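ok, trying the design again with the full structure, not the truncated one.
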């Protein structure tokens, strides 16, 4: 029983420790995201895959070299005669018709080195250019992914700040509500208030308690989101080192730029489609390749008393493959035209999105001013009603209404700050080159 109790206490202790908030800065979150984020790692693997595709196209420039070692044993007349000839052991006696027709078993071990060197391969040249453009597009898209994750870090960190600020506001409201409850209880005992007024105050205290629980859940939700971005599975509750505050910045006036990473990536993708279409058209032209072999022959393994070489060139023109190449060229042309349309559509949508983001930023800036004014007015109203309530000159319902309104205006104000800061970050993201 004693050990069970100790074990239970240790479990409770470590559970409490696990729930302690861990302080973290935005720069720390961003650094861990850049190092550990799975989305970013996948983007980097896409870049490596595209680089691998490009390196494969080196085959149109560099020679193809292969080495083989083959061993055979045969009584086939032609193969036996040829093996002796390759080994340079042919004698006059081997021309005896009887031996030619019924040779004894002969063994031949051949080491063969073969080289093939492309000389003219027009379609391969354009395929290489297409692979290069695809690689470039993937790199640009990976960089844009980094920018997007930086925006998500901004958003997630501000959500965490807002969640803590919400808890702070509600806890302050809870203190005020408990003080009002104390005053209401004293007034009820003295006969200045009715039981219904006391119950109304108690209901307000309960409402705030419930709101605090929801706000703490939002802290956990925001912490989980940042943990996912950082690829951290420790399930910790995070706490920002700084508080949510208004970012003082004028409205961004930058226009939509075609030098944005995602636009450049789509331009490179379109260029890749164009090069593939050119490659399909070049496949109608002939190819010229050089080749050469060097062979070593012997009747014992891994020897090579006899050797010989061969080299030459091949001019090959595949004139007709049914309608296969025509259909392939038609398909690549359609894909190229489609990529142009997709690029124009994406640029138009991006311009519309930027315009919408700028308007949202302006609206958020206006809202900050209005909610700040409403917050000051509601705070003053609450102060006046609280003083009158202490003197018994104010109704309980009016005090509760003023208190509720003040809490709401505080939450609205900080929510508007969040919206303003995020709108500003989003505009910067849309205009970043």
């Amino acid at each position: 029983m004693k050990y069970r109790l100790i074990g239970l206490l240790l479990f409770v202790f470590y559970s409490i420790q696990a729930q302690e908030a861990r302080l973290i800065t935005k720069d720390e979150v961003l650094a861990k995201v850049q190092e550990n984020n799975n989305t970013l790692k996948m983007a980097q693997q896409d870049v490596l895959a595209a680089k691998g595709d490009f390196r494969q196209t080196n085959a149109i420039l560099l020679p193809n070299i292969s080495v083989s070692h083959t061993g055979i044993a045969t009584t086939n007349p032609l193969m036996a005669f040829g093996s002796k000839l390759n080994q340079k052991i042919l004698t006059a006696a081997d021309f005896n018709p009887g031996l030619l027709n019924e040779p004894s078993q002969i063994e031949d071990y051949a080491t063969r080195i073969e080289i093939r060197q492309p000389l003219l391969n027009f379609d391969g040249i354009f395929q290489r250019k297409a692979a290069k453009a695809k690689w470039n597009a993937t790199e640009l898209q990976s960089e844009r992914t980094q920018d997007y994750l930086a925006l998500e870090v901004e958003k997630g960190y501000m959500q965490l700040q807002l969640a803590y600020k919400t808890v702070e506001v509600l806890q302050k409201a809870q203190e005020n509500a408990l003080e009002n409850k104390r005053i209401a209880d004293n007034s009820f005992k003295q006969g200045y208030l009715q039981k219904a007024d006391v119950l109304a105050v108690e209901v307000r205290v309960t409402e705030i308690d419930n709101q605090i629980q929801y706000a703490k859940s939002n802290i956990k939700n925001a912490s989980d989101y940042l943990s996912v971005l950082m690829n951290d599975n420790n399930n910790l509750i995070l706490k920002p080192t700084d508080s949510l505050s208004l970012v003082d910045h004028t409205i961004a006036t930058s226009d939509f730029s075609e030098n944005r990473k995602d636009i450049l990536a789509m331009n490179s993708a379109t260029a890749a489609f164009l090069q593939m279409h050119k490659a399909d058209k070049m496949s109608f032209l002939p190819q010229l390749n050089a080749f050469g072999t060097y062979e070593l022959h012997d009747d014992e393994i891994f020897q090579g008393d006899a050797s010989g070489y061969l080299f030459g060139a091949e001019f090959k023109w595949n004139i007709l493959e049914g309608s296969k190449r025509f259909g392939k060229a038609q398909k690549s042309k359609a894909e190229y035209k489609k990529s142009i349309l997709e690029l124009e559509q994406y640029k138009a949508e991006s311009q519309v999105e930027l315009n919408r983001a700028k308007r949202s930023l302006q609206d958020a800036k206006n809202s900050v001013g209005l909610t700040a004014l409403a917050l000051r007015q509601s705070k003053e109203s609450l102060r006046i009603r609280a003083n009158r309530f202490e003197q018994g000159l104010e109704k309980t319902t009016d005090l509760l209404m003023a208190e509720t309104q003040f809490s709401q205006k505080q939450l609205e104000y900080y929510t508007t700050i969040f919206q303003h800061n995020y709108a500003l970050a989003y505009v910067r993201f849309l205009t970043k080159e």
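Keeping the full-length input from now on. Strands lie at 21-24, 64-74, 106-120, 237-240, 287-298, 306-316.
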